[in-house]
Write a structure and sequence with these properties.
Elements lengths: L3 H13 L5 H6 L5 H17 L5 H19 L8 H10 L13 H24 L1
């Protein structure tokens, strides 16, 4: 598990685009890639839900991680909840059939999906205690 400082470093590198080769960033961390992606994705989801970051930030981070998430799944199970969090942000990128012009797709699709994912993760964590 990443420390808060390490998690901040990863998010900062992705946000600033200072790390063009994410593998070099990951290689310096002593954590399984699936666990890394899940922890980063959960942090991004919480930042959005808590209003600390907007949809576009979360969407950009998850789009940056997407190919790495898929690459990991070629030799192991798809990282969850990272992939589901990616899909939640992806669903907020566009209006869906039947959506009104006055609706923000990320409020209709992304926020409820992330709230479900975070609630399930919190319930799972409390069950482990």
């Amino acid at each position: 598990m990443l420390s808060e400082a390490e998690l901040h470093k990863v998010l900062e590198a992705i946000e600033s685009d200072s790390c063009h080769d994410l593998n070099r960033l990951y290689d310096g961390m002593q954590i399984d890639r699936c666990a890394l992606f899940n922890q980063v994705a959960m942090a991004v989801a919480r930042l959005f839900i808590e209003g600390q970051r907007d949809f576009h930030y979360g969407d950009a981070v998850m789009n940056t991680l997407f190919s790495d998430i898929v690459d990991v799944s070629l030799n192991a199970d798809m990282p969850e909840p990272a992939f589901s969090i990616y899909l939640a942000f992806d669903a907020g990128e566009y209006r869906h059939p039947g959506d009104g012009q006055d609706e923000w797709p990320w409020e209709k699709w992304t926020r409820p999906a992330l709230e479900r994912i975070l609630r399930a993760a919190d319930e799972g964590a409390s069950a482990e205690v």
